[in-house]
Fold this sequence. Notes:
By secondary structure, the chain is of the alpha+beta class. It has five domains: about 10-125, 2-Layer Sandwich (Methyltransferase, Cobalt-precorrin-4 Transmethylase, Domain 2); about 140-210, no CATH class; about 220-360, 2-Layer Sandwich (Heat Shock Protein 90); about 390-465, Arc Repressor Mutant, subunit A (Orthogonal Bundle); about 480-545, Winged helix-like DNA-binding domain superfamily/Winged helix DNA-binding domain (Arc Repressor Mutant, subunit A), CATH 1.10.10.10. The protein contains 20 helices and 24 strands. A hairpin with a 2-residue loop joins strand 10 (about 190-195) and strand 11. Helix 18 packs across helix 20 (about 515-530). The two termini are about 55 Å apart. The relative contact order is 0.06.
Amino acid sequence: xxxxxxTNIEYKSLKKAIGTKANLKELAETCVCLANSQGGILxxxxxxxxxxxxxxxKITQEMVNDVLSRIRxxxxxxxxxxxxxxxHENGGQYFHFRVFHTSRTIATTSSGKILMRIQDxxxxxxxxxxxxxxxxxxxxxxxLVELKSFRINQVPNSNILSFxxxxxxxxxxxxxxxxxxDFELLEHYNLSxxxxxxxxxxxxxxxEQMRSRISYPITIQYIVYDEYGEKIxxxxxxxxxxxxxxxIIDVEEKASELKYFYEFPQGLFRKRIRQYASEIIRELLVNxxxxxxxxxxxxxxxxxxxxxxEITNPGNLPIGITENNILHSRHRRNPHLIRxxxxxxxxxGEGSGYDxxxxxxxxxxxxFPIVKTGFDFTKVIQSSEIxxxxxxxxxxxxxxxxQLSQKQFIALGVIAREKKILGTELxxxxxxxxxxxLRSYVVKLEEQKILISRGVRKGKQYLINxxxxxxxxxxxxxxxxxxxxxxxxxxxxxxxQTYPESTIREIHNRLPDISFKDLQKxxxxxxxxxxxLHSSDKTYRKYRLA
Length: 546
């Protein structure tokens, strides 16, 4: 079975390309949306249901040439790589080819249709979105623009040595790259081109004067507010003195308010949990710098409130990325700057930064970050609140006794926080679209008996195994939210025996720990079984024992 479809991979049946049911216009649209996003690979001959080619399927070179020729005639500004034909273990054949990212133009179909890829789906765009897409294409080249006033030999030698030493000491850089000489390294990372300093080179290696020549260099404001919303501290970085790495380190050192922590009793000792994990601060700060739109003016704002941290940077989210799919989206607004951050161990790999943030928030039982975007800004809000300290100790116990992957811990954190959650709701938290993909998050947790489930299909619910809670010996208070159905029926009967003729809302007010949906569903089932009777009112229907 092959990899699941995502932003850069698409599977199509051979029937879409060859034969009476062929739909080459649809294939052309897929190529356009891949080209306008980040490029990708199109596999033809793979059936969507099982992600395998039919066992007896054969591909000829004539078929491949014909499909590529037709797609090229149905698209504009779309670059296609050479096709490769492969034979699967089951004997079936398929072919695939790369669709290149259009970095300077907008790809369209021959009929003028413009499409974008969002996760694993293609969507037509028009109006304002086309303007945004054009702006993204323009922003893509910002790093490589050469500064005519400065050459690389004007850069202080100490700045060059500092950069190349950092690169050569990094465990993320290949040996073949480390073996390049100093100036080859600078060209490899696009800091200079033919001896001239690029915008990226001025940003990372330049002097204060050189950075000031960039249209919109990095400027940061750090502001602390009290509980009344009054400013009590402000720091500015607007003199262009520091490169991005030095800037991040300096901000982290001076932002003392981000180093506060909570203390909880833990046996004979005290457990400390930072309000904001250092890795989260680093990731949010690096993201703000790495994904900043360097073609518009504006400061990066770091605003610290008593209960939350807000980081705002100029520029909206790249087109196709929203607050509801950011966890699994991969987009490089400033790819060469991001590569330097990654190779210097200053940030996680592409698309994995928010995975790390979600994992750390899960471990500390904190809400996931909220992302807001407007025409010219992107804001990330991270709460410092620990929702339930008992859950923190339970998750710590689980991490000490079980080997869990990052995605399993994220799912576990959501379930522990909610006590009990429907699979359909868990999918929304995890920003995934298919039940099949949810299995990769929860199936091993169920196999290890960390989780148990109730119900089937869309009614399936997940909760922490009560036996695990018992074995942890943490003395966690029981919650009515996880009550079993037969016990909930008995509780409702007891409640209505004391308070007959009650509405569902009144019953819920007396049993607030129980989910309103669960309570409503159980009462409806009790009516069907004849356990309860109700008044004839439709709006304010009252229930009593039969």
